[in-house]
Amino acid sequence: MASPVPLKEKKLMDVKLGELPGWILMRDFTPRGIAGAFQRGYYRYYNKYVNVKKGSVAGISMVLAAYVLFNYCRCYKELKHERLRKYH
């Protein structure tokens, strides 16, 4: 049974596993398409967590947590080496 929505217009969560390779190949991987995807993601995050009537620190704290996690993953090799070193 064919879906009434064309594959190109489906969101990722609506794509079935068998349709996934075709859906990925239909995405726009040009620099303009990638920049547009980041822009849409930024505006979606901003409107959901930052630009609200009753705001809290949740939106900003998620960005801070992602930054800390990213830097920890980036420096893990050096941190692991420091942890195993003996200080005596």
Automatic annotation (TrEMBL):
The keyword GTP-binding does not apply. One of its GO terms (molecular function) is proton-transporting ATP synthase activity, rotational mechanism. It is a single-pass membrane protein. Keywords: Acetylation, ATP synthesis, CF(0), Hydrogen ion transport, Ion transport, Membrane, Mitochondrion, Mitochondrion inner membrane, Phosphoprotein, Transmembrane, Transmembrane helix, Transport. GO terms for cellular component: mitochondrial inner membrane; proton-transporting ATP synthase complex. The keyword Transport applies. The chain crosses the membrane at residues 55-73. One of its GO terms (biological process) is proton motive force-driven mitochondrial ATP synthesis. Pfam families: WRW (PF10206). InterPro entries: F1F0-ATPsyn_F_prd. It is found in: Mitochondrion inner membrane. Belongs to the ATPase F chain family. Subunit f, of the mitochondrial membrane ATP synthase complex (F(1)F(0) ATP synthase or Complex V) that produces ATP from ADP in the presence of a proton gradient across the membrane which is generated by electron transport complexes of the respiratory chain. ATP synthase complex consist of a soluble F(1) head domain - the catalytic core - and a membrane F(1) domain - the membrane proton channel. These two domains are linked by a central stalk rotating inside the F(1) region and a stationary peripheral stalk. Component of the ATP synthase complex composed at least of ATP5F1A/subunit alpha, ATP5F1B/subunit beta, ATP5MC1/subunit c (homooctomer), MT-ATP6/subunit a, MT-ATP8/subunit 8, ATP5ME/subunit e, ATP5MF/subunit f, ATP5MG/subunit g, ATP5MK/subunit k, ATP5MJ/subunit j, ATP5F1C/subunit gamma, ATP5F1D/subunit delta, ATP5F1E/subunit epsilon, ATP5PF/subunit F6, ATP5PB/subunit b, ATP5PD/subunit d, ATP5PO/subunit OSCP. This is ATP synthase F(0) complex subunit f, mitochondrial. It comes from Acinonyx jubatus (Cheetah). The gene is ATP5MF.
